Amino acid sequence: MTTRSPATVEGLLLTADQLLDGELADATNAGRHRGACLALRTALELCVNQVLETAVPGSSRTTGRAKLLLLHSFTPTETARRAKALWAQLSLGCHYHLYELGPTFGQVRAWRAEVDALVQELVH
Questions:
Q1: Per-residue pLDDT at 25
Q2: If we measure between CA atoms, which residue out of 119, 103, 97, 115 comes closest to residue 32?
Q3: Relative to the CA of 26, which of 66, 69, 70, 86 has its CA 20 to 30 Å away?
């Protein structure tokens, strides 16, 4: 039996890229776009967790929304605002709603670039 390593921000970003390029899943475009949104949202959450756990040990036990609010105390306000807005967009993109169109390839690519930019800002 092989042991799976925990997900990393870089690994999740790569997974999103592979889903968008059609390399990982034999699924519809909408399914791959939603999967990429989930990978991107998880990468953003992991990055926020890393920043907050360094600043406030034990903060990993709180909710995601609380973490996004707490982020304002440890990063520039604009960075925290962008992270919260992007998290909300990615959350909508992850979920299937019968009455809504899923995210487009262009939207997911733009969100991918924004996640990458935020990760760079939060880590450095």
A1: 63
A2: 103
A3: 86
